[in-house]
Structures are given as C-alpha cells and as structure tokens.
Design a protein that fits this description.
six-stranded antiparallel β-sheet; DUF8175 domain-containing protein; transmembrane helix; 6 helices; membrane; about 250 residues; DUF8175; alpha+beta
C-alpha cells in the first residue's frame, strides 16, 4: 500500500481507479466490494488468475447429495446440494427491489433469509445458489453503508484480510446512482468454492456504464461467503459489451 495520507484515507482518490471516466467512479464508490478491490491494488499479492472457461459449454452432470457436504447444511434449511456443475441458462427468478435496484430471488436457490439490517443471505449449495449469492452481493453493494457493513461482517470468512476488508466498508452512497444485474458467468465451481462473474449496468448523472465483478466464494457455515484469504475477493472491470455473458435481467 502507498504511504500517502490521502490515498490511505480515501482509496478512491487514486487516479488509476477512475478508469478514464468520472461516471465509472461515481458508480463504483457506492459498492463496498469495489472498495475491497481498490484497497489492495498496491499490495504485493497478485489477484487470482481469471478462468478461461466459457459459460456456454456445459460441464459434466452435477453430483447430487442430500447432505450439506463441506461447510455444513444450509444455514436456513434450503435443500439440494451439487458438488460439480455450472449454470448455462438464466435462472428463473422473482425480481424484488432494494430501493430502486432489482435483485433476484428463488424459493430453491435463495436468498432464504433477510437480516434485521436488511442484507440478504442463505443460498443453496449449488452453482445456481452461488450465482444468486453473487448477484445479491452486487446489488447490496449499491445500498447504504449500514447494509454493506453488516453484510460484509456476516459474509466474510475468517482469513488474513478479514479485518482490512471490514475497515473498507465505509463511504457514502449516492441517490443518483442506479444499477441492475445484466448477466453472469460461472468461471469455476468445485462444490467447496465458486468463482462467479456478475455483469451489471448502471447510470450516474444521466451517463451509463457496464461493468462486472468477479467474486471468490467459499461454502462455509452453511452459506456462500466471501473468501477473506484472498487479497482481492471481488475484482471490478469495465466492460465494452456483454459478449460471453449469459443475459440475466429483470423482466
């Protein structure tokens, strides 16, 4: 990390983070998971390598189990376990709203519970459950700071970066920002871990941007959680288009 006081106090002041457009910065500063990305940009730890697997090609048939397998049974009793597999078509979802931002809900895949702090949690131990978890984390990232902080406190695993990531959850939200899920890719799924790429579209001050966040998830304590042993457990990128993503939008 740089020693500059301004950078330490406000990681978003780094010129390289703006990605060449003020609107991108305006969107990104509302999302705690993107703060996590920027916080560790100057560390010596390299980000996880992106998986080159295309979402369009199906893997072998899922392995089904009635038990909770690694990490225990679902924290809220959701049934169904798949220890291998992928998701190559848009999951059926009911779209509900966090203020003006839509998030997906499934009776089988989750979220199965909403905490008093209003963050959503409890997802099925399947590739589809991991996709729903990542999508809901994305929308929660555009919510108020109290929601973001509470979700991180719940969702972060124990790990060497946990305290640093929790400290990064501050920052105000802008009511001028609108965001929506646009698509997804399952980059990797082992049953114990999942790497999920969620594409989103957003607007700020009347300007539009398309981006994505790649989440490093672990099945732990009966739910999909963010891997705090990764320096960058959520990585942001601006997208020129949605090529390669499975389209998934409110409708």
């Amino acid at each position: 990390m740089a020693d500059d006081d301004d950078t330490t106090q406000n990681p978003f002041s780094r010129p390289g983070f703006i990605v060449g457009a003020v609107v991108v910065a305006a969107l990104i500063i509302t999302a705690v998971f993107l703060t996590v990305l920027n916080l560790n940009r100057d560390s010596d730890t390299a980000p996880p390598a992106a998986d080159a697997t295309s979402n369009g090609s199906a893997s072998s048939a899922p392995t089904l189990s009635a038990s909770g397998a690694a990490g225990g049974a679902s924290v809220c009793g959701l049934s169904g376990v798949e220890l291998t597999g992928t998701v190559s078509t848009a999951p059926v979802a009911e779209w509900q709203y966090q203020d003006v931002d839509a998030y997906p809900v499934s009776p089988s895949a989750g979220p199965g519970e909403t905490a008093p702090e209003r963050y959503r949690y409890c997802y099925q131990h399947t590739p589809e459950g991991a996709v729903f978890a990542a999508a809901n984390m994305t929308i929660a990232g555009f919510g108020p700071v109290e929601l973001r902080s509470a979700l991180l406190d719940y969702a972060l695993t124990d790990g060497q970066y946990r305290e640093r990531l929790l400290e990064s959850s501050g920052g105000s939200s802008s009511s001028d920002v609108r965001a929506a899920i646009a698509g997804f890719r399952v980059l990797e799924y082992t049953g114990d871990t999942a790497r999920i790429d969620i594409a989103f579209r957003g607007t700020a001050s009347g300007q539009a941007v398309t981006g994505s966040t790649v989440y490093e998830l672990i099945w732990e304590g009966g739910d999909w959680r963010i891997d705090a042993n990764k320096a960058e457990p959520a990585r942001i990128a601006q997208l020129p288009d949605l090529s390669g993503y499975t389209s998934w939008t409110v409708g």
